[in-house]
Each structure stands twice: as structure tokens, then as C-alpha cells.
């Protein structure tokens, strides 16, 4: 079947380009900058109450910048029943003192209670900010664990406040942020806010303020580059000096830069450090840039359209998709010829490979525990063994970690993870890139070729042995179904049937030494021959007269009830007589006749 190449079709490329541009605009529209901090998921100011004493102003990347201690809040003292109807205000609000209605009949009980309440309120006002901080971080930890891909916790500084009259719309947002991690101290139970070891303070003015007439981004480029060198953390006192320089360069209107909002004459044009913890959605700026680059690539006449993008704008039949991949050198048919799976694969998993031979992809569905990740790990390993590059995407970063752990250890170090930066993903990325660079630098073609030949030979030997063992198993299974004639009187059929019959009659053979089911027989060959001879004699005695003409029934009656020692002496005499008979048989006929006459 001949399939026309469509990778460079101008009409197709134009449709793909328009789709990418639309997606980029859609992401931009759905990720408009948040210029009011109250619209974020959660925010808590760190310069209110007594929280600033817990901040570490000299913390740098990887250090603990804030420790939230677990505190216990006491309930306010109980109000006397006679006073309760006359109290005005909330007794649980320690910042506002309750009052007594002017019509109250007696104020003495209220005064006594108020003295106790004031003592409680003083302690409560001291503890409550720390309690709020601990509760905030507790909720943030739960949210981050549930949505690690879409949420992040940052420490923010540089609170810019502009009124709508000044900026065209109200602005109340932080300009500088740094990624943080929340962890629990197992010894004390405190919650620790640690600056991400792989992050640095970031100036977000371009993302937040672009489009406002009061903002000019041309003067802040070098500030972006110098921020990390000048400000080690968001609570660094040097942050105020940086903010003052930024306001002079970036804004077309003058703003007042002070340490605290209450020091300013007006909040229409105000810039303060105001450190805060902000739980917010992750930004989509990198995704927008990615779409823009794809759009530019699609406009390039020398760039072929990938199959994945082409399928978004046009229906393509399976055979055409396979041919498209063949022309690109990425056909999935590479897997159908003896795929190298490091993990066991059942028939259902191998059926997936067969499906891939006739299409560009396959959808695998199933509940947890049915082997989907197991199958993906085999596919990834087989593709890498063929020299292919593999990209794996997932909505949840945890799924990627589980898949990586399924891969052979030699491949795990080569997995480059570019997600979940908030949980050490950047460190994993650095380790992976470093390992790849090290292996590339140490690569020796001749040594690697020899190693491949050695492993291939070992694999061929293993496959040959597997084939031999499989044939032996087949022969053994075939022998199990073979029906035998009588191996002994009354014992015929398949080996299993004979064994079952012997087992059923085992009670009749309990006089034999040992067990009938062991590998070693209970009798030696010589002992068995003796047993067989005795059995034949007993059968002869039981079934008829002996060769000497002696009535066996009378003989049996004579021996019946004899003591064992008597029978033993009789047996010895019989043996002696038997030997004598053998000697007589060797004599000449004349002597045998004489012996018979004597008998």
C-alpha cells in the first residue's frame, strides 16, 4: 500500500499552526495574572502579630526560614449566669473587650469576671497568631499533597499597592517570590517552612504587570539577573533596597517605599516588604512559551508536521498513521520482533504489542493492580533497547515515580524527570543529567560492543535452555497421559491412576518397611527377590499339593499354632534339606537312585 506523504502539506501545516495559536491564547486567557493577593488559594502575612520573631532573616536556599510551633488555645473564662444576658460583644474575641449593658442590675460579678477575661485575652493575643500560622501550614500541607502538580507554596515579598485611579485597575500583589517546602519535625511536631534548595528569589513583575500603563519592563532586565546575588531570601533586609531601585526603574509613577504599611501617608502608591506565605496555583507561563515555540516551528517550511499534531486537525486511518511513523523512523513495529522485556509478560500484555504493530497507539484500561504500569515499564525498556527515546506524561507525578521504580536499576538513573519541582524534582533532574553526561563521557564503543555480544550470547543460551526445558516438560506432561498395560496384576492405566490405586490400598502394605511414596524403595533388589520367592512358595502351598506329594492342608494344620522359634528351626532344617537335595542332584544316576531308595 502506497501512502502519500503529508508531513509537509501547506494546508495541513496552516491548520496546525492556527490550532496551536488558539491553544496558546486559551491558556493565556485562563491563566490571567492574579494582581490581588486575596484571590490566591490562601495567604497569611508574616509581619503581623509576633510572627516576625520566628523568621530567619539569614536563611538561604535549603534552609528553614520559618518554624511554626504548635500552640494550645485556652477557652475564655465562663460568664456568670446572672451576667450573661447583659454582656455585649464576643467573649471569644481577645482583641475586643466585651462590655456590660447599661441596664444591668449588678456590675460586681461582671467586674470580677472581666479581670479574669483580660488575663486570658492577653495570653490569647500572644498565642493566636502562631496558632493561625500552624493551622494555615497544616491545611497547606494537605492541599499540596492532594494537588502537587497544580499548587505551590511560596514566600513572597515586595507588596505593591496601586489604586485603580493610578494603574487603571487595582493592584495589590507581591513582586518577588521563592518556592518553599513544608515539613513536619518528627521530634517536636513543629511545622517547618524550608526554602527550596533548587530555587532562588524570582522577580515576577513582567508576568504580573505587563499590560499596565504604569509599568515599563525595559528598565528591569538587569534587576532580574542580579536579584539572586543581591537578595539571599525574601526576608533579607536587603530586599527593601532592591524594591526601592526596582520602583525607580520599572514604574512610570512614584510610589512610597516603606518598611510597614502603617508608616505610609497613603496606600494609593505604596511598596512594602510585607513578607507573606502564599498558597497559589502554579503559573502557566512556561506552557504559553512552549505553545508559542511550537507555533513558530509549524510556520517553518522546512519542519515536518508531527503525526500527533496532525491527528488533532484531521482524521488519519491506522494504516496511514503507521506509514507516517515509518517515514519518521519511529514506527512501533520495532517492538513486534522479539521485544526485550525485563519483567514477566502475560498473553494480554503481549497482545498490546501486537496491537501496536498495526496502529500508532493503543488505549489500555483497567482498575488498579491489573498491571498497566508493569506493561508500560516493559514497553519503555524494549524501546530503549532498540535505541529509541521515550517520553512519558502523567497527570500525577506520583505515577511517574512508580513507573521509574518499576524499571531496571540501570535505567532508573537515566530517567530525566522535569515535573514536581516543588518536591525535589529539580535535584532529580540534575542527578539524571549528570549521570547521562558521565556515561556519555565514559562510553567506549569497542568495550560496549563486546559487552553486547556477551550479553546476547548469554541470552541465546538462556533461550536455548528454556526451549529444551519446555520440551522436557512437554514430554513429561505427555507421559502423564499415557495408559500402561498391567504393570502388575490389577495395576493398569495412567501413572496417576496406578498411584491412586496403590495409595488406596496402602493399608494392606503397612507391613513393608518405610513409606511407599519416598524416592528410595523400602526393599533392596536382593530383599525383593527373597520376598518374591517366599511369595511364590506361599502361593504354591495355598493353591495345591506340593511337588513332594505331601498334603499341604495337613502340613498347614501341623504347623498351625507353632511357636516362632520352632518355625525358625523348621526353616533352617528345610534349608539344610534343600542344600542336600541340590547336592544329590549333582550325583551320578546310580547314586541318585540309591538315595531315592533310602528316602
Secondary-structure map:
Elements: H1 10-30, E1 42-45, E2 64-68, E3 87-88, E4 99-100, H2 108-146, E5 151-162, H3 164-167, E6 171-184, E7 191-195, E8 202-203, H4 205-209, H5 221-230, H6 238-250, E9 256-257, E10 269-272, E11 276-281, H7 285-299, H8 307-313, H9 318-328, H10 347-356, H11 372-385, H12 397-406, H13 409-412, H14 425-441, H15 445-480, E12 484-488, E13 491-493, H16 495-504, H17 525-543, H18 552-559, H19 564-585, H20 589-598
Parallel strand pairs: 9-10
Antiparallel strand pairs: 1-11, 2-7, 3-4, 5-6, 5-10, 5-11, 6-7, 6-8, 12-13
Helix pairs in contact: 1-7, 1-8, 11-12
Please tally the β strands and state the result: 13
Q: What is the makeup of the main sheet? A: 9 strands, mixed
Fraction in helix = 40-55%
- Specify Rg, calculated over alpha carbons: 46 Å
Distance between the termini: 106 Å
What global shape is seen?
A: elongated
Task: Estimate the mean pLDDT confidence.
Answer: 81
Give start-end ranges of low-pLDDT stretches: 546-551
Number of helical regions = 20
Estimated share of beta-strand residues? 5-15%
Q: Which oligomeric state applies?
A: single chain
The assigned structural class equals alpha+beta
Amino acid at each position: 500500500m502506497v501512502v502519500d506523504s503529508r508531513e509537509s502539506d501547506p494546508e495541513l501545516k496552516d491548520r496546525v499552526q492556527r490550532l496551536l495559536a488558539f491553544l496558546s491564547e486559551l491558556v493565556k486567557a485562563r491563566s490571567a495574572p492574579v494582581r490581588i493577593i486575596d484571590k490566591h488559594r490562601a495567604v497569611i502575612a508574616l509581619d503581623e502579630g509576633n510572627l516576625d520573631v520566628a523568621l530567619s532573616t539569614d536563611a538561604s536556599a535549603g534552609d528553614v526560614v520559618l518554624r511554626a510551633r504548635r500552640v494550645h488555645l485556652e477557652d475564655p473564662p465562663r460568664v456568670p449566669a446572672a451576667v450573661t444576658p447583659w454582656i455585649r460583644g464576643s467573649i471569644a474575641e481577645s482583641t475586643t473587650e466585651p462590655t456590660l449593658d447599661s441596664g444591668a442590675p449588678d456590675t460586681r460579678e461582671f467586674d470580677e469576671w472581666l479581670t479574669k477575661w483580660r488575663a486570658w485575652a492577653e495570653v490569647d493575643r500572644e498565642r493566636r497568631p502562631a496558632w493561625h500560622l500552624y493551622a494555615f501550614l497544616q491545611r497547606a500541607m494537605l492541599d499540596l499533597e492532594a494537588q502537587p502538580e497544580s499548587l505551590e507554596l511560596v514566600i513572597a515579598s515586595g507588596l505593591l499597592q496601586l489604586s485603580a485611579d493610578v494603574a487603571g485597575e487595582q493592584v495589590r500583589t507581591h513582586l518577588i517570590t521563592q518556592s518553599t517546602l513544608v515539613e513536619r519535625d518528627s521530634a517536636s511536631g513543629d511545622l517547618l517552612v524550608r526554602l527550596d534548595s533548587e530555587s532562588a528569589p524570582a522577580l515576577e513583575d513582567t508576568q504580573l504587570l505587563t499590560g499596565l500603563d504604569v509599568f515599563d519592563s525595559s528598565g528591569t532586565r538587569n534587576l532580574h539577573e542580579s536579584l539572586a546575588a543581591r537578595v539571599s531570601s525574601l526576608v533579607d533586609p536587603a530586599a527593601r533596597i532592591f524594591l526601592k531601585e526596582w520602583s525607580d526603574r520599572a514604574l512610570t509613577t512614584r510610589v512610597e517605599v516603606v518598611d510597614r504599611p502603617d508608616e505610609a501617608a497613603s496606600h494609593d502608591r505604596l511598596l512594602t516588604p510585607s513578607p507573606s506565605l502564599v498558597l497559589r496555583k502554579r503559573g502557566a507561563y512556561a506552557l504559553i512559551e512552549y505553545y508559542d515555540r511550537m507555533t513558530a516551528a509549524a510556520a517553518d517550511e522546512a519542519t515536518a508536521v508531527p503525526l500527533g499534531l496532525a491527528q488533532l486537525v484531521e482524521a488519519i486511518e491506522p494504516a496511514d498513521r503507521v506509514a507516517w511513523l515509518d517515514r519518521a523512523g519511529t514506527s512501533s513495529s520495532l517492538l513486534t520482533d522479539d521485544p526485550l522485556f525485563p519483567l514477566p509478560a502475560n498473553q494480554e500484555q503481549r497482545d498490546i504489542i501486537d496491537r501496536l504493530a498495526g496502529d500508532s497507539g493503543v488505549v489500555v484500561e483497567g482498575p488498579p493492580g491489573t498491571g498497566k504500569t508493569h506493561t508500560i515499564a516493559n514497553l519503555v525498556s524494549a524501546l530503549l533497547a532498540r535505541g529509541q527515546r521515550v517520553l512519558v506524561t502523567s497527570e500525577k507525578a506520583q505515577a511517574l515515580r512508580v513507573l521509574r521504580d518499576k524499571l531496571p536499576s540501570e535505567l532508573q538513573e537515566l530517567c530525566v524527570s522535569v515535573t514536581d519541582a516543588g518536591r525535589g524534582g529539580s535535584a532529580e533532574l540534575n542527578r539524571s543529567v549528570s549521570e547521562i553526561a558521565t556515561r556519555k563521557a565514559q562510553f567506549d564503543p569497542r568495550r560496549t560492543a563486546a559487552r553486547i555480544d556477551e550479553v546476547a550470547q548469554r541470552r541465546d543460551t538462556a533461550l536455548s535452555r528454556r526451549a529444551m526445558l519446555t520440551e522436557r516438560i512437554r514430554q513429561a506432561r505427555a507421559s502423564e497421559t499415557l495408559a500402561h498395560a498391567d504393570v502388575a496384576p490389577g495395576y493398569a492405566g495412567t501413572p496417576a491412576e496406578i498411584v491412586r490405586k496403590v495409595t488406596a490400598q496402602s493399608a494392606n502394605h503397612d507391613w513393608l518397611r518405610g513409606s511407599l511414596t519416598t524416592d528410595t524403595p523400602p526393599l533392596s533388589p536382593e530383599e525383593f527377590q527373597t520376598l518374591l520367592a517366599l511369595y511364590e512358595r506361599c502361593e504354591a502351598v495355598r493353591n495345591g499339593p506340593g511337588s513332594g506329594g505331601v498334603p499341604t492342608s495337613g502340613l498347614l494344620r501341623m504347623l498351625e499354632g507353632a511357636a516362632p522359634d520352632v518355625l525358625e528351626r523348621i526353616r533352617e532344617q528345610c534349608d539344610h534339606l534343600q542344600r542336600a537335595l541340590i547336592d544329590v542332584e549333582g550325583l551320578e544316576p546310580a547314586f541318585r537312585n540309591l538315595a531315592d531308595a533310602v528316602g
